[in-house]
DNA sequence: GGGTACATGTAACTCGTTACATGATTCC
DNA sequence: GGAATCATGTAACGAGTTACATGTACCC
């Protein structure tokens, strides 16, 4: 499906970037909530995109002699990205979830052990939620308006927060079933 | 992380199964909501588990001469599974989400186009939710008690339903931001 | 001078999907 | 007899992770 291709095109479309910059974005606290990649995946993909003519680059000298490649999207790349953005694909397969898999097989654990496991899991999600909420409060005390770049950041951050809340709700529900037994 | 290994062990631990049976489970409407694999992944993994001594098999003749392999978990396999079930691992990386990635880059689409995209996506999630809800109503009109095998099915199905609801909430939230613009 | 961050690449390996390949059984 | 399902495998490829490998720039 070449999703990494479009993730990279989307970033470069905003402004020219180096492979290093792109990798940093993929590991930032907003984007990493729904897409990420290591530099070892990014650099080969950039070569591919050059071969395909979706991007071009110019070598920039940093300091004395450090060469970095600043990538820019081409007209072909931009068209390709646009087409991908509005494509009507069927729903992706549900993402895998190891904790759910464990829950599925946990019928032969004893109740105290199971309860501890679920509480441990809940704690982790509560901490993650708090961290996301802090970022939101700090960065977007007021929601930015649609059609600004900030709105993209805002709406996916909101989504990540809602996801953690739902997961915590599920774990609470799970715990209530256990304690009722 | 060998998660497939434990998914298979978890299934065989319930009762002896063939590779075909396991594959069917992975594509059933409950388990597939958080774990799945094709037969081309299952058969090689079964060979590995035999080599490791986690499972054993017996050949059963179906009809005249069709040989099928019925796999059973060994003591080693069961211990391994038990250890995995109660392991306290850090939270998994957030699952990737292509629709969120598209939302992230959508600031240069026009509002009608964006609104249509989000509505399309919502429709798909509403349909999925309805399908999950039907399975739930049909199969578990009353929640089964903890410590039964049915409870595993029930609690992960509940989770899948809650996930769809949250996703729909997010899309509604998204739409409200768009229409306010 | 030293540590951290900047910057780019390749190699080996695991995991997962799609396609190739074959044959038996069951039900109509 | 034919179609759907049961049943088991391998091959080729694509995606993703960890490790290997190298060098510069910037700040203290």
Polypeptide structure, described:
2 copies of one chain form a homodimer. In chain A, helix 2 (19-26) crosses helix 3. Chain A has 2 domains: 3-85, Winged helix-like DNA-binding domain superfamily/Winged helix DNA-binding domain (Arc Repressor Mutant, subunit A, Orthogonal Bundle), CATH 1.10.10; 98-180. The first copy, chain A, has helices at 3-14, 19-26, 39-52, 75-85, 98-104, 111-139, 149-180; strands spanning 55-62, 66-73. Chain A has 7 helices and 2 strands; from the N terminus they run αααββαααα. The structure holds a DNA duplex (28 and 28 nucleotides).
Question: With helices defined by DSSP (H or I, 4 residues minimum), what is the helix count of chain A?
Answer: 7
**Spatial order of strands in the largest sheet of chain A:** 1-2
Low-pLDDT parts of chain A are none
Q: Please indicate the count of domains of chain A.
A: 2
Structural class of the helices, strands and pairings of chain A?
mainly alpha
What quaternary form is this?
homodimer
Main beta sheet of chain A, described?
A: 2 strands, antiparallel
CATH superfamily of the largest domain in chain A: Winged helix-like DNA-binding domain superfamily/Winged helix DNA-binding domain
Q: What does the overall shape of chain A look like?
A: elongated
- Give, in order, the helices and strands of chain A: HHHEEHHHH
The CATH architecture classification of the largest domain in chain A is Orthogonal Bundle
């Amino acid at each position: 499906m070449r999703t990494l291709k479009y993730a990279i095109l989307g970033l470069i479309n905003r402004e020219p970037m180096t492979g290093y910059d792109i990798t940093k974005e993929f590991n930032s606290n907003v984007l990493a909530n729904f897409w990420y990649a290591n530099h070892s995946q990014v650099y080969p993909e950039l070569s591919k995109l050059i071969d395909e003519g979706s991007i071009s680059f110019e070598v920039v000298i940093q300091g004395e002699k450090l060469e970095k490649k600043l990538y820019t999207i081409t007209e072909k790349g931009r068209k390709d990205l646009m087409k991908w953005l509005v494509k009507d694909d069927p729903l992706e397969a549900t993402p895998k979830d190891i904790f759910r898999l464990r829950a599925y097989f946990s019928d032969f654990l004893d109740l105290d052990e199971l309860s501890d496991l679920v509480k441990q899991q809940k704690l982790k999600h509560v901490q993650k939620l708090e961290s996301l909420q802090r970022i939101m409060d700090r960065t977007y005390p007021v929601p930015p308006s649609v059609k600004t770049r900030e709105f993209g950041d805002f709406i996916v951050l909101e989504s990540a927060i809602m996801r953690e809340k739902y997961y915590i709700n599920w774990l609470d529900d799970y715990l209530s079933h256990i304690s009722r037994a």
